[in-house]
Amino acid sequence: MMPPPEYVLARRVLLDALAGLAGQRDAIVLVGAQAVYLNVGDADLAVAPMTTDGDLAIDPRRLVDLPVIGEALASAGFVPGAQPGSWRGYGGVVVDLMVPSGLALHAGRRSADLGVHGRLAARAAAHVEPEEEIRASTEVLAAQLLAAVRRQG
Length: 153
What we know:
- The chain is α/β, with parallel strands linked by helices and 153 residues long.
- It has one domain.
- The protein is 31% helix and 16% strand.
- Strands 1, 2, 3, 4, 5 and 6 form a six-stranded mixed beta sheet that branches.
- α1 runs antiparallel to α4 (138-152).
- The radius of gyration is 15 Å and the shape is globular.
- The two termini are 12 Å apart.
């Protein structure tokens, strides 16, 4: 089955975010639907394995000062969205950066204080626990994206 173009675009934008955040790779964890679909692969799912956004968790204990998250994402073509941690990439596809609320320093109502990275780079999220998710694998995502693009013709 050929994936819809919006799914391929979402995966492509997620790769853009991962490439932009390469200097923070040790602090980034793939979460959300993209993580589930990457983890289960071609398993027989009750729902279509597609999503039109990307979710990345940040482990602030592993963050380094440089590159600054906002600057790195801006260099990769992203602009801040309306909410803390929301970043819009190519085609308006959103990638959300989240910090587990238990690890967020002085989290505001929605924002997470990440020191030199600011309070708007990511949002605090009670439902995100990076230890329970898989690490983002740029190589696996890239291979899946390439395969999806080839199937589209």
